[in-house]
Amino acid sequence: MSIQRVASKWSKTNAILPNPTLAAYIPETRLYTFEHLNEMLGLYGTVYIKPDNGTYGKGVMRAEKLTELLPPTEGGIIEERTWYVLRYEVETLTFESMEELHKVVSARIRKRPYLIQRGIPLLQYEERSFDLRVLTQMNLRKQWETTLIIGRIAAPDKVVTNHHSGGTVRFFNELVAPYLDVKEAVRLEQKLSKMGERVAWQLQKKYPQLKEIGLDVGLDQQIYPWILEVNTRPAIKVFSFLPNKSLYHKIFRYAVGYGRYSSSTGQPARSKKKA
């Protein structure tokens, strides 16, 4: 049984946007150009610059536009200083102009297609940003089902939360407890579950052989959920650590059911070429 994979973030974003209910949860995203970088930094102050085809958070950069008021001149005129900060991995660079920032970013991305996404000020856990992975799978009844919601905390000084970049996995309830009471947490969990299933249904319209997605969701300071990215080859075996073994067994059973893993060996099966 073939499983469709979609590498392009831009293609997945454009497949979701026609659904107005889901579009409300997607941060503004544009193809990388100097003009778009300038406009979006002016609008949002912080943006993420991502490779269109990339995994594990590799190549992701964060750019910020910062300002401060200068002391009044002798004539009483108050001026403003503007500068720019680029963060990549654990490196931080500062620039006095957009042109300097763009020059360094362009040298990093070369000719590869990159995207610019509005930066969301994520909630933090122990002074480190976190997001949530919503795992949604095709169940044995051929229906979309969200099987797991789990958190990922960014490593110190990192701009991404991915495990491959040093991120740490934490349970959903543990991360939202400082912000929500028990009932509010349950409502949010239900909302995210439905969101994962709706995104899967929407993507399936364009990619009919899709069988699983991993939705990366960031919560802002108002606990509003933003869809940061959709992965069509989400990690599964990494969840074998779950104390609820029956939950992991269900996740793995679904993956065997739609052909990601062999029922006899438990090893990965071949899947359809990425779109």
From TrEMBL:
SUPFAM superfamilies in UniProt: Glutathione synthetase ATP-binding domain-like (SSF56059)
The protein's name in its UniProt record: ATP-grasp domain-containing protein
Top-level taxon: Bacteria
